[in-house]
Every structure is written in structure tokens, then in C-alpha cells.
UniProtKB/TrEMBL annotation:
Natural source organism: Pyramimonas obovata
Hemerythrin-like domain residues: 87-214
InterPro entries: Hemerythrin-like
Name of the protein described by the UniProt record: Hemerythrin-like domain-containing protein
Domain of life, per lineage: Eukaryota
One Pfam family named in its UniProt record: Hemerythrin
Amino acid sequence: RTLFSALSTGTANCQHTPFSGGAPVHLLAIMSFSLRSTASFSRSRSTKNSSSGQHSLTTLGEISSYAKNGAGYDHAKEWHYPETSDGWYRIHNAVRAEITKLNACVAKLAGAPLQEWQVKSMQAYWKGHEKTVHSHHHHEDDLFTPMLKQRTHLPEKLETDHVGLVQMMDQIGEHVKNLKVGAPLPAQLLDLVARYKTFMEAHLKEEETICVPLMRAYFEPDFVAKLVGEVMQKLDPMVMGSFVHHHRDKAGFMQFMKQEGIPFFVWYLNFKGTRTKYRKEMETHVQAILQGKPAAKPYTSKAQLSLAMNCGNYSWQVPPGTGGGAAQG
């Protein structure tokens, strides 16, 4: 099945999915692996994360030491672009961006009675962010962790961090749901969001350090692409919109399309619409909170969304083709 035919089918069904791999793009482009936490295999070293003092970072050992049942690990040469250009890094950029903006929003709202529009914007943005994260979990749990485990001894820690993160998200969600007009933002929410940001950023860094190299060493791009068909039409358009939007601009996303062999006109058939939807239904709320007044209408342009789009000054981004390392904290 070709990438274009799959994307065309998705467009017809109002379902949009970015992927990354060899020539066909695979789901790892838009998903993060399980967000979970505890001990890791001895194959990976564990170090203290100075930014949190709590999350223990697992680092990559020898690629060959992860082999399961004599699996080969010589496929890295088949991937025709740098690791940081992979869609896995790119979707992580979107997750990091959303958390950076969430953290900025709660900081902006702290210390004053909440207005009705502020409560509604916070609740809408959190709902969308939950969708982004849980969408990753669903596809990963069903397909991609089992895939990795076919050929590798995946460190246990990468499968258990999810528990702590989901618990933290549940707590944040309860606070956001219970925000009251005329009452101040709870101090506990500020603390929870800050800790969630630290934990999530450290976890995503682990995935980039361990899972991306293992995937590229142990699996052929075409093998990974075969798993995509059954889920390509199921991704929520809002998640796709976040992925597209957080490439900074159209030119940045066009580079990704060229890398993956996606015809330029698919931008107009598929990707542009999801980016517009995301800007209207998510980024507008960030802009409103940061500018201190409600949006008169949904925003869609870079000029209208300047505060939201520049939030964090792109410290959340690992630029494609670089050595990696988004700023944390």
C-alpha cells in the first residue's frame, strides 16, 4: 500500500495521519512509546535527572546487547535521514510544545481570580492535550511496543513510566475540571504542571535516546510501514494538526513531506486543514490566555497567534537533522 493511497483514503474519511519510515511514512512519526516508570534492564545505564531529582534516565547500551533470539541489528543503514529528522522526534516536539504552553498558561493565570473565559480556555486546551498524549499510548500499546519486543529486550523502565505520567495527568485533569470562576488557580495545579513537564520531557528524551536507535537498527523501514495501514485512518485530526502545526511553518513541514516522498499537493488535500483546525481549537486558547483577553474569533494566522507560537522560544524543539537535545526545565 502506498503512502499516497493511504493518505487519500484517510482524507476521504476526514482522518489524517503523519508517518515516518523509509519511503512510506510510519506511525512512529506521530507516536511516542509508552510513558511509564521503574527499573530498566542492565543493558541500559541509569542516571539521575538533575532537572527533577527524581526521574532516573536510562541511557543506551551497546545496540547488540538488546538482541532477542539472535535478531539482526544491521538495518540502520536503510534509514536515509538522521535520527533527529525522524517523525518520532517531530511528534515529541509537538508534545513538548504543548506542555511548554500549558506551563506558561497556568503561570499567567496564577494569583488572580479566574474569569469565565479563562476557565473555559484552560479546560479546552487540557482536553486537547490529553487527546494528543493518549492517542500515542493507544497505538503504541497495541502495535509498536509489541513490535520492538519481537526482536529486542526493551528496557522495562520505558514500559512503566506511563503509570506515573498518567496518574499525574489524572490529577491535573481533576484540578482543571474543577476550576471555579472568581477563585484563584490552585497552587497545587501549578506544582503538578511543573512536575509533569519535567517528567514528560525526561521520558521523551529517553525514548529518543533508546527506542529510536533500536528501531532503526532492528527493523527495516518497510517492515514498520506494514503496521501502519490498520491504524492510519483512526488518528484524530486534532493530533495530526498538532504534529503539522509544530513544524514552525509550512516550509518546515514541506521538508518533512519531501523526506518521506509525499507529493506536495497532499498538503492541500490533507495537512493544511488539520493545521487550521488545531490553530482554531487549541492554539487560540493559548494566545487568549497569554494576551490576557478572550479571542474575538478563532485565530488561524501566525500574526494572530504570535504569543502562542513563540511561547518558549522553540526551546521544546529538536531541530531535524541536528544532534538532538531539546532544552528541558
